[in-house]
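Ligand-bound model needed. flavin-adenine dinucleotide.
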Amino acid sequence: MRDGTWNPELPIPMTIREVRQETPAVKRFVLDGSLNAYPGQFVMVWLPGIDEKPFSLMNANPVTLAIAEVGRFTRAMHLLDVGSRLWLRGPFGQGFSLEGRHLLLAAGGYGAAPLVFLARRAREDGRRITVLVAARSREHLLLVEEFRRLGCEVLTCTDDGSDGQPPRLAPLAVEELLQRAAPDALYACGPAGMLDALEALARKYHLSTQLSREAYMRCGIGVCGSCTCGDQLVCRDGPVFRIPG
Ligand SMILES: Cc1cc2nc3c(=O)[nH]c(=O)nc-3n(C[C@H](O)[C@H](O)[C@H](O)COP(=O)(O)OP(=O)(O)OC[C@H]3O[C@@H](n4cnc5c(N)ncnc54)[C@H](O)[C@@H]3O)c2cc1C
Ligand code: FES
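Prediction:
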């Protein structure tokens, strides 16, 4: 475990201990190290000669990442196997904070990764969790069994209805859940459009909400300005942003 003497701004090497294909696009990487981190925080992963990119922690002990293959860096990640080394800086950013006894989590695509970490901490604390896992189709639903193992009530929704439920987008499914279950707080991570719609719902229902947002990052520590969002920096002031109820 990296303790108080550990400088998160310096990259440290870790070795991949396990690789698991979770969906056609996403692989889980379990590393051989641990970090003192909160759910919602992220690390900068460096592959020398390729690039350095931000990823949310799915677990901190051991460090676990769920990475979707979308471009050059993540393609290189997906070529790595057990025994490969990579370098990490972090953890960085503001994570989620737990509030209320009944939490509603909404995960779009690889947004399920930080929410599994949050669910684990919340369940250790005896809180009730309902999770909506959303994806474009059934085979892309991520970490459904992991949420179930943690004792969460899990619902799914897909854009094309291939999960056997009526086809619908995540915000519509969340609104139905808000009307049915009246949770104490909403937590979400997913594509920007989904988060914007959930922010509107949070304001409409006066529901305390925490949204994990993305931006292009270079430094990860509030220096380069590449992750500006309005007057805030996503790496320093986020990635989790709070909307009061
Ligand atoms: C705080 C944070 C946490 C993240 N957590 C995860 C995670 O847990 N799992 C995961 O798979 N990915 C996560 N990401 C996204 C991940 O960093 C990018 O997918 C990765 O950098 C893409 O690199 P690439 O070279 O493979 O693709 P690129 O070639 O850089 O990009 C491929 C495509 O994705 C788009 N894209 C890339 N990065 C971003 C971004 N930051 N915002 C919006 N669009 C983008 C590009 O426009 C392009 O269309 C996170 C990003 C942030 C900021
Ligand atoms: S990534 Fe450099 S300021 Fe946020």
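The chain has a mean pLDDT of 95.
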